[in-house]
Write a structure and sequence with these properties.
The chain has helices at 2-29, 217-229, 245-251, 437-444; strands at residues 50-52, 58-62, 75-82, 86-94, 97-98, 124-134, 142-144, 149-155, 176-183, 210-214, 255-259, 269-274, 282-290, 296-297, 305-307, 314-321, 337-338, 342-346, 352-356, 368-379, 394-399, 410-412, 422-426, 431-435, 453-457, 466-470, 484-492, 516-517. By secondary structure, the protein is mostly beta strands. Strands 3, 4, 7, 8, 9, 11, 12 and 16 form an eight-stranded antiparallel sheet that branches. Strands 23-24-20-27-1-28 form a six-stranded antiparallel sheet. The longest helix has 28 residues, at 2-29. The two termini are 29 Å apart. The model is unreliable at 1-46, 192-205, 230-234, 496-509 and 512-520 (pLDDT under 50).
Length: 520
């Protein structure tokens, strides 16, 4: 009878162990190629799954950042004054070129929309030259509050080059103002503004809402005269500058489109989502036809056009002014600013949050640990959302020990390639959650040096979204609003014991987990 009882006890003991390992194996199998804990378990280890959420997190801000902005197909223009994040402005650098290589667009001035076709350029007079750009006809196509802004178009003084990375902080010299206009954005209807003594209306074939800025008449006439006169210019190429896109770019490197709205108060202004590569975007030349009797006929539109294309260079430039914000402090560029209670993230290469875990290695000071799950919960301060939507997706980027700014010496966490990574905004619970078990395991195993993480808004080069978050410090004695790292783990003891024991840490060791055993 005694032998039977001992045999049943033996079976029950190993049945419990088998169930535990089956459950753990099922969990691990849900993590593609995770391999967490594989081949590291000695036969004499005892196991006990636990939970802890008291790891010290220190949060700080990096105000100066820059992101690569060429090679994207989304562009914003405008400025706004955020009550929390201060002033932000988005501008655009772009090359404009003749639509077709090998044909002088001024020799025969195309098709007029009064029914006249193929009019020789000698029978036309330049009426006006206009820059036009459509809004993106999708929702949302602006960020902030729509209000009038002064749009300015400059010509560039220096060239831009292919196979070059252009950042949101890059500045190309631009000293000549070609034109400006106060634009009240109308994102649902055509902009049919008429300038004095000039008919300027949308061409029927370009059906996006857009705005237009009249450019310097003498600048436009120069291109007409150069094309028709055949006089050799200083480049020695004559009118070939209009026959070859590369030659044209050499003589006219491009344009800078920006806004000048210095009197915006907090809560005013917006950024407009622009369709830079639509057929209705570019520089248009409007003409009058000289009739045989000496009279002229006005037109609504004519070619040639100097257009913008994804085959040519265009990039965004962003300006941020944080000096009026509550979180600004005098600092050396690239140096983090401590921000424990509240922390901030903004797109467009704006403010970035840095997260450090200074005592994380105390977890494995006395025992090896298997990380079953490591969940970083980041609550959002909803009272600061207002009209400015938080990023739909956030990312955690690992920092190498030589890193000084988010754009250099960083690496992608291994968890990002898994389905459980997370980072999407939970509108119901108002938080972002990341599962970074593989990263934490690598830190415990000394495969990765823990030198902090950067928290970035997704698609920072094309998204202006921003958010205020709770930091790593406690808001108050009774408050649980703080950033937390929740670790579900199994300690490994390297010696035989009669029954499982939880992890033990020296009293003076910081981040010693307050263990909460998980019941099986």
């Amino acid at each position: 009878m005694i032998k039977k009882d001992r045999r049943n006890s033996f079976k029950a003991k190993y049945l419990v162990m088998a169930c535990f390992w089956a459950g753990y194996s099922f969990f691990a199998s849900c993590s593609p190629d995770s391999g967490i804990g594989s081949n590291i378990l000695p036969d004499n280890n005892t196991l006990n799954a636990n939970f802890n959420d008291t790891t010290t997190l220190r949060t700080s801000l990096v105000l100066e950042d820059s992101v690569i902005t060429n090679g994207v197909n989304a562009f914003f223009l405008g400025s706004y004054n955020d009550p929390i994040f201060g002033e932000t402005k988005a501008s655009i650098y772009a090359q404009v070129t003749p639509a077709v290589n090998g044909a002088n667009p001024f020799t025969v001035v195309g098709t007029f929309y009064n029914g006249t076709t193929g009019v020789p350029a000698t029978r036309v007079i330049l009426d006006s030259v206009v820059f036009s750009i459509p809004y993106v006809f999708t929702t949302p196509n602006y960020y902030g509050v729509l209000s009038p802004q002064t749009v300015q178009v400059y010509s560039l003084d220096k060239q831009m080059y292919p196979d070059t990375s252009y950042y949101s902080s890059t500045v190309i010299p631009h000293s000549t103002l070609l034109g400006e206009r106060i634009v009240t954005p109308n994102i649902t209807e055509w902009d049919s503004t008429r300038y004095s003594n000039t008919r300027i209306e949308p061409c029927p074939i370009y059906n996006y809402p857009r705005f237009k800025v009249r450019l310097n008449q003498q600048w436009g006439q120069k291109w007409v005269d150069t094309a028709l006169s055949g006089v050799i210019n200083i480049t020695g190429r004559g009118d070939s500058i209009l026959l070859n896109q590369a030659f044209f770019i050499h003589d006219f490197p491009g344009i800078y489109i920006t806004t000048n709205s210095p009197m915006q108060f907090p809560g005013q202004g917006s950024l407009w989502f622009m369709n830079l590569y639509d057929a209705g975007a570019g520089v248009f030349f409007y003409m009058k036809i000289i009739n045989s009797n000496g009279t002229t006929t006005d037109t609504t539109y004519s070619i040639p056009q100097l257009g913008m294309s994804s085959e040519h260079i265009a990039f965004s430039h962003f300006d941020h002014n944080y000096k009026t914000t509550s979180f600004y402090a005098p600092h050396k560029v690239g140096t983090p600013i401590n921000s424990q209670l509240s922390t901030y993230v903004q797109g467009f290469g704006g403010v970035t949050t840095k997260i450090n875990m200074p005592y994380i290695m105390n977890w494995v000071k006395n025992n090896k640990v298997i990380v079953n799950r490591a969940e970083l919960d980041i609550p959002v301060q909803t009272q600061d959302i207002g009209i400015y939507a938080p990023p739909a997706q956030m990312y955690l980027i690992g920092i190498n020990d030589t890193s000084t700014v988010p754009t250099t010496a960083t690496f992608t966490l291994p968890d990002e390639y898994t389905t459980y990574y997370g980072g999407t905004y939970d509108e119901f619970n108002h938080e972002y959650t990341f599962d970074i078990a593989e990263y934490i395991q690598n830190v415990f195993d000394k495969k990765t040096i823990e030198d902090g993480l950067y928290l970035l808004g997704g698609s920072s080069a094309i998204s202006p979204s921003r958010v205020v978050l709770y930091g790593g410090g406690t808001q108050g004695a009774a408050s649980n609003k703080k950033m937390r790292l929740k670790i579900y783990y199994t300690p490994l003891n390297s010696h035989k014991v009669e029954k499982p024991k939880v992890m033990e840490f020296p009293v003076e060791a910081k981040d010693a987990p307050s263990v909460k055993a998980i019941k099986h």
